[in-house]
């Protein structure tokens, strides 16, 4: 860029400006010098006044405090005598007479300290009167106190008591006079100091008048400078406030999210555990078995939906929980809720009753997952807080507001009106003992109320201590009136008895390599593969999978991710690097998108999670394996086919599955002993491997608590663990052993 030098000018200060600058500098230097000098004198004077005032105040305050302490000691001695006189308990009299003598010691110490501070004639006169009066009155007071320790009082006791009281009052009057005298001295000293202070301040007024002009200029400069700084600071504070608000929102969102998920998962998970253990009973009737399978399937599907939501909701900011509006039968939701909670209610000797106030809409438009979550929370609380009686669920339709109304009533412990007013507050339960006895975080009702409001309604509560509680949930039925209505309902219908609709097992063709290190899960998946007509080669580590995959021909490879010798990811990478083109499906208990991406990036073609969903499992197999061609038997072979009906394949697979569960339970004590031994010997690698196997098998066979404990053991296992980690491991090992004993005992 070219600059025209002709337009560049140099501004040179004029002589007048230079003189003005010199004058300002000189004036400022003079003012500054005078300010420093006068400021020093003023500071010296102020320091002198301050020191004098501090000394006066300190001494007088000390004297007042000591005189007050003497007065308090006299009053407390009188109080001790009155307490001794008022009680017949000689132990209490012993205690009071000890205090009586202790107050005398306090009086004496305060008097000695007061005399050590120095006194003038007026003060000495008061102290001498106190000494003379005390010489006569205190033996009399002591005599009264000691007489009260006798079994009987003399006839003239009342006279002695009255005289002692009068003498004590006279002592108090003298002490009050001493205190007033000290206050008078303090006021006089303060008045003198005030006069000196006023003189010093008058000197400063002259200086302030001279410096006022310069002070204004300096003030303007300072104000301008500070103003600019304040603006910058305000902008910075605004940025920090926004950052803090964002962090608070994030923290609150995480807390609300975790609490929400915890309450969504807990109740159906309890149902799955309970019914899974029930299935171990060999004496279970077909009807009861069908009921248990139905409850497990319904609860499992509900949990599966929640886990899928977790992957999405974890990426959403707080307050952005989406509502998915679908057509749903409110009566079916009530029946499913009853089915999930019926086992727990029956164990507690309770009955869940349903009442449908027809006519009712056949379907409404709402979010079925959130509505079911609310119903599970309300009904679960009713079961939890009811010791005897029943729980009633009433369903009705409010045509005026186009709202479905669910009323959950119980005959439980009930709540006071004060507790009802706080019942929807987050982290709140009726009282601390409720949390200790019944458990829970106190978030469920708060979450349910917010969800109800998101669904276009609300929750209200009425309760009475000792009689029960009634929650009324209302939600919007949709923008338009329902089209179809239910006008008759069989109130005696058994809601939990409904046949499980199995997906048809596909018949596929091909040879499958299965890499899975947990024997029970390997057996289960092998059974499912063979049921589909597939040939299976099973191995228990990644290295063996690579060897077989390169030496033999397979149509599909199913690869577990966590295995000994060589893990699944490394095995997939080695197979792909060696030129293996067969489809590979990754199988893992880690279900996050990050885990899925890691498997796909390693070379896997597809991804499945454990525990295995049979429908999803067969659907994935069908993507990569062809259907088996229909074949017709030769005539001579057909003639050999027996005329008797063949056993239903679903029944056969149920029997095989039951045998697998029984085998897992029979081997469970040995597995737990192995884990316990590895812990005691501090063989952390072996402990992690065994815990990983038990984690996968527990989830596959309906024992999620075993999977949870094993997962926590894996998290804690590491070489050189500190004492805290080892103590936590010990607690987990003990829990694992207790759970093992419960399962094996129930299995019989």
Task: Map the helices and strands.
Elements: H1 15-86, H2 90-116, H3 121-147, H4 157-278, H5 286-313, E1 326-328, H6 330-347, E2 351-356, E3 360-361, E4 364-366, H7 368-384, E5 390-398, E6 403-410, H8 417-422, H9 432-438, H10 444-454, E7 458-464, E8 468-476, E9 485-486, E10 511-515, H11 519-531, E11 535-539, H12 542-551, E12 556-560, H13 568-577, E13 584-588, H14 593-602, E14 606-609, H15 614-624, H16 635-639, H17 649-680, H18 684-700, H19 704-716, H20 723-747
Parallel strand pairs: 2-5, 10-11, 10-12, 12-13, 13-14
Antiparallel strand pairs: 1-4, 3-9, 5-6, 6-8, 7-8
Helix pairs in contact: 1-2, 1-4, 3-4, 4-5, 4-6, 6-7, 7-10, 11-17, 11-18, 12-13, 17-18, 17-20, 18-19, 19-20
Q: Roughly what is the average pLDDT, rounded to an integer? A: 77
Q: Give the C-level CATH assignment of the largest domain.
A: Mainly Alpha
Q: Give the strand order, joined by hyphens, for the main sheet.
A: 2-5-6-8-7
**Structural class, from secondary structure content?**
alpha/beta
Compute the separation of the termini in Å. 96 Å
* Principal-axis shape: elongated
Share of helix, binned: 55-70%
- Please give the number of β-strands: 14
Unreliable spans: 1-11, 311-317, 432-441, 497-502, 630-649
Estimate nothing, just give the exact number of structural domains: 4
Count of helices?
Answer: 20
- Biggest sheet architecture: 5 strands, mixed
Look up the CATH topology of the largest domain.
Four Helix Bundle (Hemerythrin (Met), subunit A)
What percentage of amino acids are in beta strands? 5-15%
* CATH architectural label of the largest domain: Up-down Bundle
What integer value in Å does the Rg equal? 44 Å
């Amino acid at each position: 860029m070219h600059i025209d030098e002709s337009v560049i000018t140099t501004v040179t200060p004029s002589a007048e400006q230079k003189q003005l600058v010199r004058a300002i500098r000189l004036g400022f230097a003079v003012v500054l010098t005078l300010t420093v000098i006068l400021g020093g004198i003023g500071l010296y004077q102020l320091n002198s006044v301050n020191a004098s005032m501090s000394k006066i105040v300190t001494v007088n305050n000390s004297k007042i405090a000591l005189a007050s302490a003497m007065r308090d000691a006299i009053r407390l001695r009188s109080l001790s005598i009155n307490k001794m006189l008022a009680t017949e308990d000689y132990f209490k009299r012993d205690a009071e007479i000890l205090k009586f003598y202790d107050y005398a010691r306090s009086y004496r110490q305060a008097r000695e300290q007061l005399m050590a501070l120095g006194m003038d004639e007026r003060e000495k006169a008061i102290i001498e009167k106190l000494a003379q009066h005390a010489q006569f009155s205190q033996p009399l007071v002591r005599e009264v106190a000691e007489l009260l320790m006798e079994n009987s009082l003399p006839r003239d006791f009342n006279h002695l008591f009255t005289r002692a009281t009068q003498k004590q009052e006279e002592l108090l009057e003298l002490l009050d006079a001493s205190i007033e005298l000290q206050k008078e001295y303090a006021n006089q000293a303060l008045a003198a100091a005030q006069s000196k202070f006023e003189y010093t301040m008058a000197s400063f007024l002259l200086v302030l008048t001279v410096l006022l002009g310069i002070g204004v200029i300096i003030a303007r400069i300072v104000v301008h400078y500070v103003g600019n700084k304040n603006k910058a600071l305000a902008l910075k504070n605004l940025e920090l406030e926004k950052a803090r608000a964002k962090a608070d929102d994030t923290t609150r969102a995480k807390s609300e999210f975790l609490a929400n998920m915890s309450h969504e998962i807990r109740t159906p998970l309890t149902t799955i555990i309970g019914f899974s253990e029930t299935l171990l009973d060999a004496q279970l009737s077909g009807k009861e078995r069908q009921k248990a399978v139905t409850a497990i399937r319904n609860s499992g599907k509900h949990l599966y939906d929640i886990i899928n939501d977790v992957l999405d909701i974890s990426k959403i900011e707080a307050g952005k929980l989406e509502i998915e509006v679908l057509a749903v039968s409110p009566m079916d939701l009530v029946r499913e809720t009853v089915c999930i909670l019926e086992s727990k209610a029956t164990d507690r000797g309770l009955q869940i009753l349903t009442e449908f106030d027809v006519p009712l809409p056949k379907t409404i438009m709402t979010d079925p997952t959130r509505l079911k979550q609310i119903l599970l929370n309300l009904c679960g609380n009713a079961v939890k807080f009811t010791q005897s009686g029943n729980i009633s669920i009433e369903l009705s339709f409010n045509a005026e507001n186009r709202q479905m109304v669910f009323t959950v009533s119980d005959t439980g412990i009930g709540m006071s009106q004060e507790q009802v007013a706080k019942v929807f507050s987050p982290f709140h339960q009726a009282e601390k003992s409720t949390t200790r006895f019944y458990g829970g975080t106190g978030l469920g009702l708060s979450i349910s109320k917010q969800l109800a409001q998101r669904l276009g309604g609300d929750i209200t509560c009425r309760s009475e201590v000792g009689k029960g509680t009634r929650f009324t949930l209302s939600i919007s039925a949709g923008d338009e009136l329902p089209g179809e209505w239910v006008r008759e309902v069989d109130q005696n219908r058994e809601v939990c008895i409904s046949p499980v609709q199995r997906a048809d097992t596909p018949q596929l063709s091909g040879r499958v390599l299965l890499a899975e290190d947990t024997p029970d899960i390997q057996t289960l998946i092998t059974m499912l593969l063979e049921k589909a007509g597939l040939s299976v080669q099973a191995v228990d580590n990644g290295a063996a999978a690579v060897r077989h995959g390169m030496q033999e021909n397979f149509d599909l490879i199913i690869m577990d991710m966590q295995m000994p010798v060589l893990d699944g990811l490394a095995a997939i990478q080695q197979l792909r690097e060696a030129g293996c083109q067969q489809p590979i499906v990754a199988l893992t208990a880690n279900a996050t998108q990050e885990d899925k991406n890691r498997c796909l990036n390693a070379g896997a073609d597809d991804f499945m999670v454990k525990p295995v969903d049979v429908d999803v499992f067969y659907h994935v197999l069908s993507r990569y394996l062809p259907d088996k061609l229909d074949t017709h038997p030769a005539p001579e072979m057909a003639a050999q086919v027996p005329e008797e009906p063949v056993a239903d394949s679903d029944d056969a697979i149920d029997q095989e599955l039951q045998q697998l569960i029984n085998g897992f339970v029979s081997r469970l004590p040995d597995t737990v002993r192995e884990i316990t031994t590895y812990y005691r010997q501090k063989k952390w690698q072996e402990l992690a491997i065994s815990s990983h196997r038990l984690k996968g098998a527990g989830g596959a066979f309906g024992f999620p608590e075993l999977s949870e404990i094993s997962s926590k053991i894996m998290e804690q296992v590491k070489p050189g663990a500190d004492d805290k980690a080892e103590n936590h491991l010990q607690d987990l090992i003990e829990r694992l052993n207790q759970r093992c004993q419960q399962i094996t005992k129930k299995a019989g």
